[in-house]
UniProtKB/TrEMBL annotation:
UniProt-recorded name of the protein: BTB domain-containing protein
SMART domains, sorted: BACK, BTB
Organism whose genome encodes this protein: Branchiostoma floridae
Keywords: Kelch repeat, Repeat
Pfam families membership: BACK, BTB, Kelch_1
BTB domain ranges (all copies): 24-91
InterPro entries: BACK (IPR011705), BTB/POZ_dom (IPR000210), Kelch-typ_b-propeller (IPR015915), Kelch_1 (IPR006652), SKP1/BTB/POZ_sf (IPR011333)
PANTHER family: KELCH PROTEIN (PTHR24412), KELCH REPEAT AND BTB DOMAIN-CONTAINING PROTEIN 8-LIKE ISOFORM X1 (PTHR24412:SF499)
Gene3D superfamilies in the cross-refs: 1.25.40.420, Kelch-type beta propeller, Potassium Channel Kv1.1, Chain A
UniProt cross-references to SUPFAM superfamilies, sorted A to Z: Kelch motif, POZ domain
Amino acid sequence: MINKKYPNTFFRELNDLRKRAELTDLVLEVEGTSFPCHRAVLASCSPYFRGMFTSGYAEAKQERVSIQKVTKEAMATILGYAYTGCLRTAPDQVQAVMSAARLLQVVDFVYQKAAEYMKDHLDMSNCTDVLMYTDMLGDLPLQEASGRFIASKFDQVVLQPSFLQLSLPLLQRVLNRDDLMANSEEVIVEAAFRWIDFKQEERLQHLPDICKSLRRSFISSDKLVELESKCQSTNSELVYSDSTTQRVGMTRTEMQIAVLREASTEFPLYTRCFDLSRGTRYTMNMPANLECFTMIGTDEGELYLAGGVIIEAGGTCTATNKWGERKFFQYNHLLNTWEPRCDMIGNRIRCSLVCLDGYIYAIGDGRTNRTAERYDPSRDQWICIPTIPYPMPRAHSRMFSSVYCAVALDDSIYVMGREGCYCFSTADNKWKKTA
């Protein structure tokens, strides 16, 4: 007979002993903070500590051991995992935890989950930092993920301060990519100029090397003259890439897409899309088993998906999310995948989504929810806005459906339903009933 509760009880009691510093046989010193712990626990989860305590090193007999190149916050996180199996850390500590997990060889779970978090939370402000960090670590999958993200947002990423911090080899690696979302080679040339001008005296000498990543076939004669002029002081001959492959951004076309989502759960992983201008059907991968969500396209050509419910086999909602999901996704056009973004503040089913002045507004849902919130894509952050101060009717259908629609006009959002029309002024941050 096996007591299934025993492991949880055992580790809970062991963790309590650690917190009270009872029966511990070691103190780790990290950045001036002391962490009482048990050698056996550390050795069981880390080859680093197992080797330290069993291979005849001096630390095997020391009561206090100093750990370098690890932050105290990261050590607290790793010890918490070692004693409980639960990984909890603040978003701004993920990189430190990842570095510590690699150093201390806690890679089976901690490092992998930290890497997954960084991959899922790539944005324009951090993608080049992640590329530089993972290049230092030698993490090839995360390097490629950050490289793909940079390529997919290239025209915006090059405007970020962190782009200017790239090393020459990393800059060349980025500029060599076929999947850069740049509508002309001149955009890539200008990005190279911006990188050089940031430290011109130091970097101008690298122009000949950078030109090997620029595709002469697609550079205008005026831009070639500008390149040659910049290079005169280096006394070097410019040699360009002879590739005749267009970057992805040069071949993209504008499309009007209607998303045709089936109510059946027989094919839950994709949805059919219809290009209205060409009369062509496509398939789009979707988050697994998610229904009753809302999608929106922005003026910048981005697609976002919000809320919904997870449908189990047989077409029933899961008990844990009957009030809807807080999930929010952005579509990656290159990979045909939905990438998680910051969760919404409220749970929503069939909410209304509106784009206005670069923000996305999520309003209400298919129930009587009157709350609203605003998403800032540049910060990957939601904030609450005032609740609609009027009662909202609920949908009568079995599956939730939106009982009103929302549109943007000038600096206001108008919400229309059976009970009337309501206006939210972004300038005044107030709702009023207009009809």
